[in-house]
Amino acid sequence: MVSFILCLLPALLATSAQASTLTCKTCAGSADACRAAQGTCRVDKATGGCYSVAEDITLEGIKTMGFASRCTNNYNMGVKDPVTLTLGNGTYLRINTTWCNTDNNCNSAVPEVPKGSTTKNGLQCPTCWSLSTDTCDSHIAPCTGDETYCIDFAGTIRRGSEKSTFAAKGCATASTKVIKGGMGLFSALSTFMFTKATSKPAEKTPPSGASPALGRFSFALYLPGLTGLLLVKLLA
Ligand SMILES: *[C@@H]1O[C@H](CO)[C@@H](O)[C@H](O)[C@H]1NC(C)=O
Ligand SMILES: *[C@@H]1O[C@H](CO)[C@@H](O)[C@H](O)[C@H]1NC(C)=O
């Protein structure tokens, strides 16, 4: 009898430990690295969880594909759905994050990198991207695919040991409407901390032929463009 209880004890202890902690897969780097044998991390199931991220981020003309799986101590903080943001001039963020806190190793599947779309959806937003500033000069651009919101945000971006402030505007998925100042977006390779962020439904593109100045966007948004034209005129 005593030996039976002694045998049972480790099993009971193990069960109670499993109820409060969750094991997640960990990996970083390429999709192949994340599909292959991976490490694990443990997190308190009450507040934490597992996530995996696959991203295509093209900034300053440099495209980086990143993959990672990790534990998080703040399961209820962060953007749960895939987000894509198109900031003009070939600059975009496409981040697919999958979250779970149900079963051990529930984040072992590698998410797909969002593809992005070139199909115009009849909406438009001011777009711009600028490093080392907290404002950027925007120009109106058509939105594509399921990017039906306009986002205006600024903050800091950290990638490895490099850190910079940035300002950006662009077309974005509706999933970005939960992004607020003070929040962070943890991608595979970068951490974005937002000092401000507003995301609201995009305006319809005016019918072609209509004067842009008659649109609902303020005239000031067109000033950088007009200044450019004047400069070209003066220089010509
Ligand atoms: C567009 O991106 C290229 C490559 O990063 C950069 O050299 C250029 O200055 C950008 N143009 C504008 C208008 O932002
Ligand atoms: C994100 O990854 C999941 C899992 O692979 C996939 O089903 C989904 O379509 C992906 N979402 C986007 C926007 O790529």
Question: What does this molecule look like?
Answer:
The chain is of the alpha+beta class and 236 residues long. The protein has one domain (20-110, 119-207). Helices cover 16% and strands 47% of the residues. The protein has 3 helices and 13 strands; from the N terminus they run H-E-H-E-E-E-E-E-E-E-E-E-E-E-E-H. It has helices at residues 2-20, 31-35, 223-235; strands at 21-29, 39-44, 49-59, 62-72, 83-88, 91-100, 120-131, 139-144, 149-159, 162-172, 184-186, 190-201, 203-204. Strands 1, 2, 3, 4, 5, 6, 7, 8, 9, 10, 11, 12 and 13 form a 13-stranded antiparallel beta sheet that branches. A hairpin with a 2-residue loop joins strand 9 and strand 10 (162-172). The relative contact order is 0.14. Bound molecules: 2-acetamido-2-deoxy-beta-D-glucopyranose (2 copies). Residues 82, 96, 98, 111-112, 114 line the site of one 2-acetamido-2-deoxy-beta-D-glucopyranose. One 2-acetamido-2-deoxy-beta-D-glucopyranose is lined by residues 60-61, 89.
